From TrEMBL:
It holds the Pfam family Glycos_transf_1. This is Glycosyltransferase family 4 protein. Keywords: Transferase. GO terms for molecular function: glycosyltransferase activity. InterPro entries: Glyco_trans_1. Residues 228-307 form the Glycosyl transferase family domain. Gene3D superfamilies: Glycogen Phosphorylase B. The keyword Transferase applies. The keyword Transferase applies.
């Protein structure tokens, strides 16, 4: 029996982005099972190189052109450009009996792109309605039509959100897994790591309040930005503390990666992060509470200055917990179970 073809449609973003990495990983996990899986871009030979993934590629410029037309703001501006582009474009699309997997970021009209059955890999439920029209009731949309098969998602918070929004649709959770490069190290330096991409204004307030405090005299504030996976892991393994600025997250993987490397993690859970922000080995701060965040960070820096092992041991507890809970074996099995459950009425599994 021939394998079912699956095309995973991936945005073309060159800078390191967690959502893109997970789409590549999804393609890798599904390959070699009951499916013939292709990571799909629009531009010939485009691929991301900041992480390692063994996937096969397909390219459909016409499909990505259609997506671009759906999502761009000024549609009239490009009428003539579109006319000439369409004249010379390769018009091929995925086979009609193949299954497509889209990310959640392309709005209300995914179902108009092709006649294929499709799944949406919803990595952040809080992006689901970003491109839906404001104060306009959409009757038929991406998640309410005969070709939509269901959601893959990445946390209990996301599952609850999607079940509330779409109670008649299938929602299958995936347990994300940690790359083995995110391993525990007890060789901690006085480094406070953070990712400036999220809530930079909150970090700036905390930094300005504390940077000249004498307790921070020998500490380094280390941004993690535009790094490869291995570079991120190296920074986290050296860092004593990681600051989380999760905000309305589908899961929020960076704090888990920091815990895996033995960092003491402080900060916002962003809703989904409540499942791993356990009080035994981390400190959750109410979203956007700058005063509380600053006080907690000051307290933990003083603790490390006086007794580094006390924080390192908590980091070890965190590392053991997240490696046990979010490992590659769990991720692979939960991914296969989720996709099989959605497709069991469409194809023989």
């Amino acid at each position: 029996m021939p394998k079912t073809k699956i095309y995973i449609i991936c945005p073309e973003i060159k800078v390191p982005t967690g959502g893109v990495k997970q789409l590549y990983k999804l393609a890798e996990l599904l390959s070699g099972e009951n499916y013939d899986v292709f990571l799909t871009h629009g531009k010939k030979n485009f691929k991301n190189n900041w992480f390692s993934a063994k996937v096969q590629f397909a390219y459909f410029p016409n499909l990505f052109y259609k997506i671009y037309k759906l999502t761009r703001k000024n549609k009239r501006k490009y009428i003539f450009k579109d006319f000439f582009k369409e004249l010379f474009m390769d018009k091929s699309l995925p086979e009609k009996d193949s299954i497509l997997i889209f990310p959640e970021v392309w709005g209300a009209n995914i179902h108009t792109l092709t006649p294929n059955k499709y799944i949406v890999y919803n990595q952040n439920c809080y992006y689901t309605f970003n491109l839906f029209p404001f104060l306009n009731n959409v009757i038929e949309h991406s998640y309410d039509n005969t070709n939509f098969l269901g959601f893959l998602t990445v946390s209990q918070d996301s599952k609850e959100y999607l079940n509330l929004a779409f109670p008649n649709q299938k929602t299958e959770p995936i347990c994300l897994g940690l790359n083995p490069s995110f391993s525990f190290s007890s060789n901690k330096e006085k480094i406070i790591a953070f990712m400036p991409r999220k809530l930079k204004e909150d970090f700036n307030q905390i930094h300005q309040i504390l940077v000249n405090n004498p307790h921070f005299k020998d500490w380094k504030w280390q941004p993690i930005d535009n790094c490869t996976e291995d570079e991120v892991a190296t920074i986290l393994q050296k860092s004593a503390i990681f600051l989380s600025f999760n905000y309305n997250e589908g899961f929020g993987l960076p704090p888990v990666e920091a815990m895996a490397c033995g960092c003491y993690v402080i900060g916002y859970a962003g809703n989904a992060g409540k499942e791993y922000f356990l009080s035994e080995f981390s400190t959750i701060v109410a979203d956007r509470n700058i005063i509380e965040y600053t006080k907690v960070l000051l307290d933990k820096v003083i603790t490390f200055n006086e007794n580094p092992l006390s924080l390192i041991n908590l980091g070890k507890e965190a590392s053991v917990y997240v490696h046990k809970t979010y490992n590659l074996a769990h991720e692979k099995q939960s991914t296969l179970n989720a996709v099989n459950n959605i497709l069991k009425n469409e194809i023989p599994i």
